[in-house]
Design goal:
- By secondary structure, the protein is an alpha+beta fold.
- The protein folds into two domains: 4-116, MutM-like, N-terminal (N-terminal domain of MutM-like DNA repair proteins, Alpha-Beta Barrel); 130-248, Helicase, Ruva Protein, domain 3.
- The chain has helices spanning 4-18, 130-138, 145-150, 160-170, 184-198, and strands spanning 25-28, 43-49, 52-57, 60-65, 71-75, 85-91, 94-99, 103-108, 234-236, 246-248.
- A hairpin with a 2-residue loop joins β3 (52-57) and β4 (60-65).
- The protein is elongated and about 60 Å long.
Length: 254
C-alpha cells in the first residue's frame, strides 16, 4: 500500500536511474496527454511531496499519485508492460513504467506546486515542520484521531498502515478525539520517525523487530495476540465505518 515512505523511495529510485539522462522513449497512455512525446529531452529531477510524485523534464512536470494500487516499476531490462500501464519512459537500457496510477497528468513545471499547495508538512520533506504539523493536528479537538492523521492537509504522507500503528503507540483508539492526545508534537515526531526509518525498507517495521510476522503492532493482525499484552487484536472493516479499515488492541488502546 503506497504511503509517504513508498512514494519517497520510488522518487529516489527514479531519480537515481533517470535524472540527467535523455529519454529515448515516452509513451503516455492517458487520452488527454497521449499525443505528448518527450523523447529526446533530459530528465532534470524527480521529487516527492507527501504521496505525490513529480518527474520534471524541461518545462513539463509529470505528476502522478498511486493511491491504493498504483506503482512505478524501474529496471535495467525490459519491465513487463500490459493494459495497466499508464506511462512508459525509457533512457536507453532503463525502463520506468507507471502502473495503475490513479492520477497521471502533465503540468506546467513552473506551477506544479499548486496541486500540492493544500498539503500539510511533508513528513519526509526537507522543510518538515513539526510545530506546524502538531498545530494542524490539534486544530479540531473533537475530530477522531484516525481521521485527522489520514487528512493530508494536516500532515502529508500517512496512510492506513501508519495511522493504525500510530494510534497503537499513542495508546488511543482510532475513534478517540484528538483532544485525548496529551502531546501532539510528540505524536507527529513519532510519525516522522516511523516513515523515516522505513523509507528504504521493502517491508515496513514499526515494532523494531524485523522478523517476518512481527514487524507491525496491530495492522493486519486481527484475531492475533497483541505483542504487548496478549489481548486479541480487533478489527473494523471499511464496510462498517465511514473511516478506513481499523485495527486496535482493546487493552492497550483507550
Amino acid at each position: 500500500m503506497p504511503e509517504g515512505d513508498t512514494v519517497w523511495h520510488t522518487a529516489a529510485t527514479l531519480r537515481e536511474r533517470l535524472a540527467g539522462r535523455t529519454l529515448t522513449r515516452c509513451d503516455i497512455r492517458v487520452p488527454r496527454f497521449a499525443a505528448v512525446d518527450l523523447t529526446g529531452q533530459v530528465v532534470d529531477e524527480v521529487l516527492s511531496r507527501g504521496k505525490h510524485l513529480f518527474i520534471r523534464i524541461g518545462g513539463v512536470s509529470i505528476h502522478s499519485h498511486m493511491q491504493m494500487d498504483g506503482s512505478w516499476r524501474v529496471a535495467d531490462r525490459p519491465v513487463r508492460v500490459d493494459h495497466r500501464a499508464r506511462i512508459i519512459l525509457e533512457a536507453r537500457d532503463i525502463r520506468a513504467v507507471g502502473v495503475d496510477l490513479a492520477v497521471l497528468e502533465l503540468l506546467d513545471r513552473d506551477n506544479d506546486g499548486a496541486v500540492v499547495a493544500h498539503l500539510g508538512p511533508d513528513l519526509l520533506g526537507a522543510e518538515w515542520d513539526a510545530a506546524v504539523a502538531a498545530a494542524n493536528l490539534a486544530a479540531d479537538p473533537q475530530r477522531p484521531i484516525a481521521e485527522a492523521l489520514l487528512d493530508q492537509r494536516v500532515l502529508a504522507g500517512i496512510g492506513n498502515v501508519y495511522c493504525n500503528e500510530l494510534c497503537f503507540v499513542s495508546g488511543h483508539l482510532p475513534t478517540a478525539p484528538v483532544s485525548a492526545i496529551a502531546d501532539p508534537q510528540r505524536l507527529v515526531a513519532r510519525a516522522r520517525e516511523m516513515l523515516w526509518l522505513n523509507r528504504f525498507r521493502r517491508n515496513r517495521c514499526t515494532t523494531g523487530d524485523t522478523r517476518a510476522g512481527r514487524r507491525l503492532w496491530v495492522y493486519g493482525r486481527v484475531g492475533e495476540p497483541c505483542w504487548r499484552c496478549g489481548t486479541r487484536v480487533e478489527y473494523l472493516s471499511a464496510r462498517d465505518t465511514a473511516e478506513r479499515v481499523q485495527f486496535w488492541c482493546p487493552a492497550c488502546q483507550r
